[in-house]
Specification:
The chain is an all-alpha fold and 169 residues long. The protein is built from four helices and no strands.
Length: 169
Amino acid sequence: MTNSIRNQRAAQEEADLKAATARQARQVAEEEAARLKAAEEAAESRVRAAEHQAQELKAAEEEQRAREEAAESQAREAAAREAVAESQARIAEHEARAVEAAAKARMPQAEWDAHRVAAMIQCRGENEVTMQVIADELGVSVGTAHNRKERALELLKGEKSKAFQPVLA
């Protein structure tokens, strides 16, 4: 019977060893399953974070695009205002020329020339507007240029005609 007890004990030890091995294998499998589940959850978390980041980037891009469109709109608006200002400046120039032409039509040539010389003096300075410069620009003699300059200086001292203000051309 000893043999049989030994066989039983050996069988029991073998069964216990197999059970322990099975428990250990089950525990390793459970730990591996838990590790895989944790890895899967971490991956899902990274995917959600990446999706969230992608949404944030898309929102930032849309916001940037909106800012760029607003800036372009403001630039177009500024260009339009500038074009309007330029048009108004050209209109003012044309109106001034029309006033000048009307004034010239009502004014004797000598008076008109004196106003031109006054405008030249205002623009360039009295020392730069010599008799020769006046003679060349008006197409008159130096003596006539002297008379036109004297009249222009009178106009500049306050004896200007109320019907005409010199316009610089």
